[in-house]
Amino acid sequence: MATTAHELDEMTNIDLEAKLREAKEELFNLRFQAATGQLESHGRLRTVKKDIARIYTVVRERELGIRTAPGSDNEDGAA
Fold first, then answer.
1. How crowded is residue 51: how many other Cβ atoms within 10 Å of its Cβ?
2. Cα–Cα 20 to 30 A to 23, which of 13, 32, 53, 70?
3. CA-CA distance, 13 to 53, in Å (whole number)?
4. What is the pLDDT of residues 5-28, one digit of tens each?
5. Whole-angstrom Cα distance, residue 36 to residue 7?
6. pTM of the prediction?
7. Euclidean distance between the first and final Cα of the chain, in Å?
């Protein structure tokens, strides 16, 4: 379930916050499984960490104005 930056571009800020919360919760669960020796897929840890980093990157780029949230019209459409 690796998320691409293009998929994140299409999400609203509220959706990104929800996705971030889910990813952090999954990372916690995976770390707990790793600590107890129950983790089967160690690659999933890396994937979830990268997804969290991608979400933080998109959020920060929106703050800086590099990316725009869907539905926000930052372009000057006036004639």
1. 22
2. 70
3. 15
4. 888 989 999 999 999 999 999 999
5. 33
6. 0.82
7. 44
